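ok posting inputs for the zinc ion job
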Amino acid sequence: MNNFLIKNVCVPGLDLDEAHIVIKDGRYDTIMPAVSNEALIFTQNWEEDNKKAVDGRGWTIFPTFTDIHTHLDKAFTYEQVPNYSGTLREAITNYQSALPSFTEEAMMERMRRLMDRAVSYGTGRMRTHINAGEDKAGNIALQAASKIKEEYRGILDLQIIAMVGNMSQPLTKNIELQDVLLSNNIDGIGGAPHLSESCNEEIDDLFAFASSRDLLIDLHADEQDDPEVRSICHIIKQVKKYDYQKKTTAGHLCSLSAMEEEAAFSIIDEMIQEQIYAVTLPAANLCLQGRDDKKNVRRGTTRVTSFLKKEAVIAVGSDNVNDPFHPFGDGDMLLTALIAAYANHLTSQKDISRLFQMITTKPAEIFGQTNHIQEGEKADFVLIEGKGEIELLSVQSGGRKVYRNSRWVSERQETISVWKKGNIYA
Ligand SMILES: [Zn+2]
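and the output
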């Protein structure tokens, strides 16, 4: 089905109530408002020629989602790994203890489960952080992710960020660990240096290694309620030193919300100047942060509205799914967007439109690609049952059709049966 017409579909980004979209050879060939006379004649001719058409009435089209921050290796371990306190500290400790009991096969099955569900919801790109260590268990997770990356290429494209920390020696001197990372097809280096006693030295080491291999940097930064935790300031210095603009991403940035507005704005300005991407992870932060607050319990998410106000590149990621860090979720970015809307006061029409950019075009940019619904661009989209952004966020419809790389890659349906008086089966 290389050439086809999608009729009467809602296209929010183009401010068209309904449009006709012609896809030819995997690209958007023509996009026209559905109400014009030209469109009427066009569809009549199309149908008389018996060409293929998809009825898009009551559906909305978006570029496929990019989930820019996940943890495939940890997904669906909630039953095996408890977290009684609900804190980040206990989640990390308990997961590390359970890690040696995981097999590569079981890990791959859990990864496939999340990948399949994410594709079915409309995700076309995903970046996963994978725990990498000097022991055998660390290698298993990376090997599993590397195989999954090949298995899903073209359906759900995967970037792998190797999360390192607590190393016996710096990565730049750790030839054995370097070999493990580089032999597993990684795209970047990550970690959570703010948790380390030698935070700045760890950041220096990661940048030195990444720049020597032209790898991306994607760090868990300042996932803390303490306003004095500011590893982002040292990250900014290293981006300047290594000219790592547009190759560096900082996720979480929770402490920005805890500090005074002036201090936070100054850091955001420097991030924008150095073209450092920001990612907010609302689901995990709402669960893990603010646990020690005795009153006015904090949301724990970063200052999303401040980033938006300054036109910074910021995206929303799903982070952990059904594991000790976050017990819920199943890879649907529409649900993650709704959580981000609640967590960050994103309720105006303008902010809701920006929210959809934060799960589509913005994270695609961080991924290093473009994905827009424009004539001449590659057709890479999800059709979602429901009309317009507010209805989709409210209804969370399961009806989705996903098209990538010149083919339909997934379809899921929403089925509703209401048994009213008079048609109840006795
Ligand atoms: Zn994370």
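notes: Residues 69, 71, 129, 220, 319 surround zinc ion (CB under 6 Å). The chain has 15 helices and 16 strands.
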